[in-house]
C-alpha cells in the first residue's frame, strides 16, 4: 500500500492543468490554482522563517474553495444529526485541522507535477471535474473532484483519488471508532491526529 503523497487538497490546488477547463466549476478551481502558485513562488513567503505567514496565505485560498463543513458532515454520516450545533462546530474545526495537518506540507513540496484535464460534468448545483495526474517519473493516477454550488461559488465537498473517496475514507475510520467509543473520545483522537489519509494500491 502507498499513501498518495500529492493527494486531495494538495492535488487540487497545486497542479496546473494542461488544457482549459470549460465550465464555471473548473474555472474556479483553476483560479484557486493560480493563487496558490503565486504564493508558493513569491519570494516574500520563501523559507522556513516564513512558514507561518506562507501557510496563513495558503489557508485563505483553501477556505475559499473547500467546504470543510460539508466535508466534515459527510465524513461523520448519520452521527452528525445526533449532536448539538456546538458539538458539530467542534467536530468541523478538528476535521479541518486534521486535513490541514495531512496536506499543507504536501502543498509546500510541489515540484512540477502535471494534470491532464479529462472532463467536467454539471447537473444543476452539483458538478464533477476529472483529472489525471502525471508525476516526474511518468506515473499516473486519477483525481475526481466533487463540488456543489453555494451562492454561485463552487465548493469542493469530496475528492476521489483512484476510486478512493477522501470523505468515505474518514467516515469508515470514524464509524469503526464510534462502534466501540464515545463521540467525546472520537474528538480526543482527532485532536491527537491519529486518523490516516486515504491509501490505495500501488
Descriptive terms for the model:
single chain; 202 residues; alpha+beta; 6-stranded mixed beta sheet; globular; disordered N terminus
What does this structure look like?
- Residues 1-6 and 18-22 have low confidence and may be disordered.
- This protein is α+β, with helices and mostly antiparallel strands.
- The relative contact order is 0.20.
- β6 and β7 (164-165) form a beta hairpin.
- The protein contains 7 helices and 8 strands.
- It starts with a strand and ends with a strand.
- The strands form 2 sheets. It has a 6-stranded mixed beta sheet with strand order 2-3-4-5-6-7. Strands 1-8 form a two-stranded antiparallel ribbon.
- α1 (8-14) packs across α5 (85-108) and α4 (68-76) crosses α5.
Low-confidence stretches: 1-6, 18-22
Number of helices: 7
How is the largest sheet built, in terms of strand order? 2-3-4-5-6-7
Radius of gyration: 17 Å
Report helical residue fraction: 40-55%
Count of DSSP strands: 8
**SSE-based structural type:** alpha+beta
Beta-strand level of the residues, as a percent range?
Answer: 15-25%
The quaternary structure here is single chain
SSE order in H/E notation?
A: EHEHHHHEEEEEHHE
- What's the story with the biggest beta sheet? 6 strands, mixed
Anisotropy-based shape: globular
Distance between the termini: 6 Å
Report the average pLDDT across residues: 83
Fold topology:
Blueprint: E1 2-3, H1 8-14, E2 16-17, H2 24-41, H3 51-65, H4 68-76, H5 85-108, E3 114-123, E4 126-134, E5 140-150, E6 153-161, E7 164-165, H6 166-178, H7 183-191, E8 199-200
Parallel strand pairs: 2-3
Antiparallel strand pairs: 1-8, 3-4, 4-5, 5-6, 6-7
Helix pairs in contact: 1-5, 2-3, 4-5, 4-6
Amino acid at each position: 500500500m502507498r499513501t498518495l503523497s500529492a493527494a486531495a487538497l494538495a492535488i487540487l490546488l497545486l497542479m496546473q492543468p494542461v488544457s482549459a477547463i470549460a465550465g464555471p466549476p473548473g474555472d474556479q478551481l483553476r483560479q484557486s490554482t493560480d493563487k496558490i502558485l503565486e504564493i508558493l513562488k513569491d519570494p516574500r513567503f520563501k523559507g522556513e522563517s516564513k512558514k507561518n505567514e506562507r501557510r496563513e496565505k495558503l489557508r485563505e485560498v483553501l477556505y475559499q474553495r473547500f467546504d470543510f463543513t460539508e466535508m466534515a458532515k459527510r465524513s461523520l454520516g448519520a452521527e452528525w444529526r445526533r449532536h448539538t450545533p456546538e458539538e458539530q462546530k467542534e467536530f468541523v474545526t478538528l476535521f479541518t485541522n486534521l486535513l490541514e495537518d495531512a496536506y499543507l506540507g504536501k502543498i509546500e513540496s510541489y515540484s512540477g507535477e502535471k494534470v491532464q484535464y479529462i472532463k467536467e460534468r454539471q447537473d444543476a448545483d452539483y458538478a464533477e471535474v476529472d483529472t489525471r495526474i502525471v508525476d516526474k517519473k511518468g506515473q499516473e493516477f486519477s483525481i475526481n473532484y466533487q463540488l456543489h454550488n453555494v451562492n454561485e461559488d463552487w465548493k469542493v465537498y469530496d475528492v476521489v483519488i483512484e476510486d478512493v473517496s477522501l470523505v468515505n475514507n474518514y467516515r469508515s475510520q470514524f464509524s469503526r471508532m464510534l462502534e466501540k467509543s464515545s463521540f467525546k473520545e472520537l474528538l480526543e483522537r482527532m485532536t491527537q491526529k491519529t486518523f490516516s489519509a486515504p491509501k490505495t494500491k500501488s
